[in-house]
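Hi V.,

You were right to ask for the full record rather than a summary. Here it is.
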Amino acid sequence: MKNKLKWLFLSTILISILISSCNQQKVHNLTIATAANMQFAMEELTTSFTKETGIKCETILSSSGKLTAQIKEGAPYDIFVSANMKYPNELYNAGFTTQKPKIYAFGKLVLWSMIDSIKPSINLLLHKNIKHIATANPKTAPYGIPTEEVLKHYKIYDSIKNKLVYGESIAQTNQFITTKAAEIGFTSKSVVLSPFIKGKGNWIDIDEQAYAPIKQGIVIIKNTSTSIDKKEKFYNFLFSKKGQDILNKFGYSTNF
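Predicted structure:
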């Protein structure tokens, strides 16, 4: 009987320790809903932030449109790092955020191919050997909008629109390009500058005069279990010199 009571006592202590440990881990985690174009930059940002503050981060990657829908449905995200200002403004106007959205960077568009023999150019998109052109879906992923603007700017949209293959996010668009399911495609410059992709394939910058500035915004989400202090620490880190330097490294412009 004494042994049973002893084991019961020890088990109770062990369970209490485990629960306490889990709760502490949960408290220290920030959940950051992140637009897919920011995947690689966010990995470096969160690593640097955790090293500096001790606050751990979990990143949820998807298209900005899908993340917005999830937040409206109650997904417990602490911060939303979007690929545009439209969706953060939508959340702000609906009362989901602590303050108005703020631009943290301007994105840049590139034309990229993983086929060695292909040297990307706008005119090449008209060539008969180019049968599939990858781009993000403008209905869910903001980077699809400047792609359409570029094609219309150069007056080739109607000629090549049947070649367009739409990814639901930049991540899926990149899959079309890297697997060569599409001979060529439009993506974020941050992708081709990432450590995992840098030096692979051929790419060119798209003239920034051919599309409207890609204003990328951030908001803090209300009513989650994470303290506002921790949320604001990451928010402020993103706008710090260290945070902005990381964004510049991945091809984003931070000249506001």
